[in-house]
């Protein structure tokens, strides 16, 4: 007897969920979303009062029990990229992601070449910007222009087994609906190695609809970076807070946990403080929040 056909919308969501599941690393266990082994240190290379060397940085992560790392950099850091990779390997730290240029320029090719030489396939976090569009025609033109920019990056990443995660950093590109439109267009071209990474610290204007946005993003989500969040925090000088110091943190954490999403969870410094001190504060704040939440429902 022939099977009933799925509605087109259901089929698209099912396929998107399958793509995302294949692309992202899973946590250590089904209930290990916030385990230290699943946490990714982020914004700790150019943001660190101690200006650590690659070796000191990897040793610091190992001391904290953090086993995943997203590499952000400035031009002065690229000459020591190989030393960074050596130090991570010595200390058993996974290179989960690399902050990647917005075009396939010389720095982008350098990073791809060094990763290929090491057989590493981290996520490549790519951002963008732009003012909001005002008409459907302007929106279509923006999507087309962004596809032209992103396509060479996604193609180059696919050629060596990496995924590209579109990174919300404000502006037009920072709206998840626009990122999803780009992802769907690229996947329609056969470029299925693309998803998104969502950053709470760039999502203050999304707080009132975060739960619905997370459900919309979930089939495409490759990583999610935490931050202490308070209403209007960016306009009030509270853009970056320690986890647990934001008035909305418990609510957001429960929303993330209850969504059923699994994948890497980032914790960040992104200040001029000592990165180790700040990461430790975030670890402690996260644990305190988790201790205060009701236990997750067992499936």
Would you kindly provide a written description of the structure presented here, covering whatever features stand out?
The protein has one domain: Alpha-Beta Barrel (TIM Barrel), CATH 3.20.20. Helix content is 41%, strand content 12%. It is built from 9 helices and 8 strands. It has helices spanning 8-23, 54-64, 81-91, 106-118, 136-159, 176-188, 210-217, 249-258, 275-292; strands at residues 39-42, 68-71, 94-99, 123-126, 164-167, 194-199, 221-225, 265-268. Strands 1-2-3-4-5-6-7-8 form an 8-stranded parallel beta barrel, surrounded by 5 helices. Helix 4 links the parallel strand 3 and strand 4 (123-126). Helix 2 packs parallel to helix 3 (81-91) and helix 5 crosses helix 6 (176-188). It is globular. It starts with 7 loop residues before the first helix and ends in a 7-residue tail after the last helix. Mean pLDDT is 91; it is low at 9-22 and 24-30.
Which structural class is indicated by helix and strand composition? alpha/beta
Radius of gyration: 19 Å
Give the percentage of residues in beta strands.
5-15%
Major sheet size, sense and barrel closure: 8 strands, parallel, barrel
Tell me the number of structural domains: 1
Q: Count of helical segments?
A: 9
Spans of at least 5 consecutive residues whose pLDDT stays below 50 are: 9-22, 24-30
What's the total count of β strands? 8
The top level CATH class name: Alpha Beta
Provide the succession of SSEs.
HEHEHEHEHEHEHEHEH
The CATH architecture comes to Alpha-Beta Barrel
Tell me the CATH superfamily.
Answer: Divalent-metal-dependent TIM barrel enzymes
What spatial order of strands do you see in the largest sheet?
Answer: 1-2-3-4-5-6-7-8
Query: What is the rounded distance between the termini?
Result: 32 Å
Question: Based on CA inertia axes, which overall geometry fits?
Answer: globular
């Amino acid at each position: 007897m022939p099977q009933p056909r799925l509605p087109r919308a259901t089929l698209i969501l099912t396929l998107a969920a399958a793509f995302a599941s294949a692309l992202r690393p899973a946590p250590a266990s089904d209930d290990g979303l916030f385990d230290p082994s699943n946490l990714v240190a982020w914004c700790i290379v150019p943001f660190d009062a101690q200006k650590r060397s690659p070796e000191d940085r990897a040793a610091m992560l190992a001391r904290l029990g953090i086993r995943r790392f997203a590499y952000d950099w400035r031009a002065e850091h690229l000459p020591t990229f190989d030393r960074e990779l050596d130090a991570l390997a010595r200390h058993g730290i996974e290179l989960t992601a690399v902050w990647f240029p917005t075009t396939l320029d010389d720095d982008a090719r350098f990073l791809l070449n060094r990763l290929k030489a090491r057989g590493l396939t981290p996520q490549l976090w790519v951002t963008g910007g732009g003012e909001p569009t005002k008409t459907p025609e302007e929106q279509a033109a923006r999507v087309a222009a962004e596809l032209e920019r992103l396509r060479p990056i996604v193609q180059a990443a696919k050629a060596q087994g990496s995924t590209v995660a579109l990174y919300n950093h404000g502006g037009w590109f920072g709206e998840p609906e626009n990122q999803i439109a780009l992802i769907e267009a690229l996947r329609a071209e056969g470029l299925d190695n693309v998803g998104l990474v969502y950053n709470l610290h760039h999502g203050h204007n999304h707080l009132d609809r975060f739960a619905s946005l997370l459900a919309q993003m979930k089939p495409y989500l490759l990583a999610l970076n935490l931050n202490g969040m308070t209403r209007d925090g960016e306009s009030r000088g509270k853009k970056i807070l320690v986890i647990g110091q934001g008035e909305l943190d418990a609510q957001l954490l429960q929303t993330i946990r209850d969504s059923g999403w699994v994948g890497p969870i980032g914790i960040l410094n992104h200040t001029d403080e000592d990165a180790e001190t700040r990461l430790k504060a975030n670890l402690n704040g996260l644990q305190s929040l988790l201790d205060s939440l009701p236990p997750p429902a067992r499936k």
